[in-house]
């Protein structure tokens, strides 16, 4: 049948449109249009089938959903009822609250604020009233306009109280239904507590609508009139499973819903299907286009690769081969052509690459060398800073220790000086009195304390740097002989033998400091040797002389060899027994050796003995120096040709002790506590003193050096005497800076505590023409 002429134009137009869409343009777009047409056909067929199946299934599913919702709402309502009933029962059984409300003045009980705070139970509004035994209200939690107790409710409560039985009911107030319940303080269904009439009751009321959490659900009572179900809707009723208390009410939850879901289905299912179909068609179009683009991506990559090579030249590009179809064969052929181009360029770039590699290697080595140098510099700087910090910490610690020892020594020397002077004066006055033996024991104890203070003073002098060696020719043999004579008897008392090997060695040294080093080593050996012998000797060597002290004592463990030269460090004296020394002898040896540039070495075997060696570098001499033996002096008296002594000290005990000792020698004494008092005393006496003894540290920060200066000025200007007395500075200070200042003054420096014989020596030196007689 031939088409009519008026239909040919539209058909040709459609034909041209299809021809343009399906035979021209990019492959991906043409593939997408074909897929779209097929998708339209499939959407229509699938949509019709789904509509027929869904309309039947949805009706059954709708009824099942309504039943499930009704059961869920019923369980929620049961939970609210249970919570409400249990809470009210606990509140009714609260004996303290019931007794407080029942007593006279119960309305003023402090429990009322708590009662008024109970406005909701599990989000259910509730009004409650506590009554007495006759059902008369005592207290409530506050009446509300929409929820209140009516006279009918109270009358109902009176009947429940009269029956002595908890009760529950559903009442109607206006158009609303309420749960009304009365709880008596008794067990459920039993008699009140103790068999007596109830002390009161709790009446509470809650709206039934608040117990249902679904807007289309209601609570109805069994046997109550039920409104008819509206047309087009259905109702599902679910009995509530409640406690025996609420079971007589026969509460049923009723849920209404649309009975026919077709209208809902037509209202949203068909539009949803239409939207899904439209979305599917759009997805088919763009998905098909994406699939087409994916299938033709190899051709597009070849096109772009060829354009890149034409524009920028070949730089190693490759075409990706996907699969084994015709497009993949074309890509393989294209890659073969690129391989040929790469082979030509590879030969040209090889030498350039080698040159670049060599240059990069040199650059990396140079950079590594610079980095290593920087690291070494940084590490050296860090080590230097750490060393500086460690040195600063050590110097601060050493300074703090020195200052502490100086302060402690000064504070101790003041009372010790008083003891020395007063004990000496007491010994002179007692004479042969039986108590003089006690004075001897006191002097022995004071002498031990003086040795400790003298050792600390020696350490401070060495730390202050005020000890200067006086080098002269010294005979080691003379020193050895003197030490042997001094310690032979002490060693024999311990049952050991002490021997000094004869020697003719002479050398240049400070005789006093060298003898102090050797004496301390001998003292140390004697202190820690209980049997055997001690030998003092020397040996010549190419470098100089080695003075050695050997003993057969207890020995020193290897881990203690370095620490024995520290202050107050003793290995075998944990109880700090004075008989075993103070722990300062070897520390003084170490400092003196460093001052004289000697080296002290020690070798020891625990249980067998020790050997201390002093290495003295330098040549020996031929001339022998004879060292004077130390003399001894005692407290002496003078005849009554009186000398005048001026004592300046802020400590009353020290002033008194010095005054007593000097006066016992026949002298006159002016004792003052400061410079101004001394000037006044000389002005009054109108006589120049022959001896001035001034403490270095006076009260109020005054210095004894300043006091001596004031006295000398007074002698010159006021007394008009050009002859100045012998001035002695007496100090108990061991601080290095104070020792340095005192030594720089040029006056005689004596350190506390000074003994009676030193006082006698000062008096003899001040007035040597006075006759001196020995005192017992």
TrEMBL record:
Membrane-crossing segments per the record: 31-53, 263-286
Entry-linked Pfam families: HATPase_c (PF02518), HisKA (PF00512), Response_reg (PF00072)
Annotated PANTHER family: HISTIDINE KINASE (PTHR43711:SF31), TWO-COMPONENT HISTIDINE KINASE (PTHR43711)
Catalyses which reaction(s): ATP + protein L-histidine = ADP + protein N-phospho-L-histidine
Protein name listed in UniProt: histidine kinase
A GO term from the CC aspect: membrane
Coiled-coil ranges (or none): 363-390
Domain Histidine kinase: from-to ranges: 407-620
Domain Response regulatory intervals: 644-767
Nuclease is among the record's keywords: no
Keyword Nucleotide-binding: no
Broad class of enzyme this protein falls into: transferase
Start and end residues of each HAMP domain: 293-346
Modification sites for 4-aspartylphosphate: 695
Subcellular location: Membrane
GO MF term list: phosphorelay sensor kinase activity
Gene3D superfamilies: 1.10.287.130, 3.40.50.2300, 6.10.340.10, Histidine kinase-like ATPase, C-terminal domain
Enzyme Commission number(s) from the entry: 2.7.13.3
């Amino acid at each position: 049948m031939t088409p009519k002429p008026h239909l040919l134009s539209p058909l040709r137009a459609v034909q041209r449109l299809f021809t343009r869409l399906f035979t021209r343009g990019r492959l991906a777009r043409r593939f997408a249009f074909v897929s779209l047409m097929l998708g339209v056909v499939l959407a229509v067929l699938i949509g019709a089938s789904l509509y027929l199946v869904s309309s039947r299934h949805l009706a059954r599913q709708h009824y099942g959903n309504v039943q499930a919702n009704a059961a869920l709402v019923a369980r929620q309502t049961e939970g609210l009822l249970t919570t409400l009933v249990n809470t009210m029962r606990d509140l009714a059984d609260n004996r303290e609250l019931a007794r407080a409300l029942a007593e006279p003045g119960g309305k003023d009980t402090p429990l009322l604020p708590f009662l008024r705070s109970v406005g909701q139970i599990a989000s259910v509004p509730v009004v409650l009233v506590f009554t007495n035994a006759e059902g008369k209200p005592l207290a409530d939690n506050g009446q509300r306009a929409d929820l209140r107790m009516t006279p009918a409710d109270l009358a109902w409560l009176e009947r429940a109280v009269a029956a002595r039985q908890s009760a529950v009911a559903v009442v109607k107030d206006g158009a609303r239904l309420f749960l009304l319940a009365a709880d008596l303080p008794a067990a459920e269904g039993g008699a009140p507590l103790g068999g007596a009439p109830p002390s009161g009751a709790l009446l509470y009321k809650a709206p039934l609508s608040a117990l249902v959490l679904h807007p289309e659900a209601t609570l109805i009572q069994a046997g109550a009139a039920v409104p008819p179900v509206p047309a087009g809707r259905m109702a599902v009723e679910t009995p509530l499973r409640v406690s025996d208390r609420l079971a007589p009410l026969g509460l049923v939850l009723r849920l209404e819903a649309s009975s026919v879901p077709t209208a809902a289905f037509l209202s949203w299912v068909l539009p949803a299907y239409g939207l899904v179909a439209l979305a599917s068609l759009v997805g088919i179009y763009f998905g098909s286009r994406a699939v087409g683009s994916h299938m033709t991506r190899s051709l597009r990559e070849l096109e772009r690769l060829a354009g890149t090579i034409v524009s920028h030249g070949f730089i190693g590009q490759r075409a990706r081969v996907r699969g084994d179809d015709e497009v993949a064969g074309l890509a393989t052929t294209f890659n073969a052509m690129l391989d040929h181009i790469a082979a030509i360029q590879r030969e040209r770039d090889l030498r350039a690459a080698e040159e670049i590699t060599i240059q990069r290697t040199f650059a990396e080595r140079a950079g590594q060398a610079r980095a290593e140098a920087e690291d070494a510099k940084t590490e050296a700087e860090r080590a230097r800073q750490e060393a500086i910090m460690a040195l600063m910490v050590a110097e601060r610690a050493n300074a703090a220790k020195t200052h502490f020892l100086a302060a402690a020594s000064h504070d101790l020397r003041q009372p010790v000086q008083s003891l020395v002077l007063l004990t000496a004066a007491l010994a002179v006055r007692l004479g042969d009195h039986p108590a003089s033996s006690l004075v001897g024991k006191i002097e022995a104890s004071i002498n031990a304390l003086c040795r400790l203070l003298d050792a600390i003073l020696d350490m401070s002098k060495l730390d202050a740097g005020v000890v200067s060696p006086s080098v002269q020719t010294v005979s080691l043999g003379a020193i050895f002989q003197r030490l042997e004579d001094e310690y032979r008897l002490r060693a024999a008392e311990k049952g050991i033998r002490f021997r000094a090997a004869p020697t003719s060695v002479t050398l240049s040294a400070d005789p006093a400091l060298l003898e102090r080093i050797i004496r301390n080593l001998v003292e140390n050996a004697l202190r820690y040797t209980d049997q055997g012998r001690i030998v003092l000797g020397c040996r010549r060597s190419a470098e100089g002389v080695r003075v050695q002290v050997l003993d057969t004592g207890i020995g020193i463990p290897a881990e203690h060899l370095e620490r024995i030269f520290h202050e107050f460090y003793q290995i075998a004296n944990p109880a700090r027994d004075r008989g075993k020394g103070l722990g300062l002898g070897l520390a003084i040896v170490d400092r003196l050796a460093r001052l004289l540039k000697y080296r002290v070495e020690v070798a020891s075997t625990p249980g067998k003995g020790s050997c201390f060696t002093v290495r003295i570098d330098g040549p020996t001499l031929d001339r022998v120096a004879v060292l004077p033996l130390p003399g001894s002096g005692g407290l002496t008296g003078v005849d009554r040709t009186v000398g005048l002594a001026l004592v300046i000290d802020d400590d009353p005990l020290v002033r008194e002790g010095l005054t007593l000792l000097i006066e016992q020698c026949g002298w006159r004494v002016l004792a003052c506590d400061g410079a101004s008092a001394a000037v006044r005393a000389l002005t009054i006496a109108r006589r120049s003193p022959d001896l001035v003894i001034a403490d270095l540290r006076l009260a109020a920060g005054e210095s004894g050096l300043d006091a001596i200066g004031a006295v000398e000025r007074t002698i010159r200007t006021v007394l008009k005497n050009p002859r100045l007395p012998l001035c002695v500075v007496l100090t108990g200070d061991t601080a290095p800076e104070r020792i340095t200042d005192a030594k720089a003054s040029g006056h005689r420096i004596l350190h506390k505590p000074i003994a009676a014989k030193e006082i006698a020596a000062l008096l003899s030196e001040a007035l040597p023409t006075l006759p001196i007689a020995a005192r017992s």
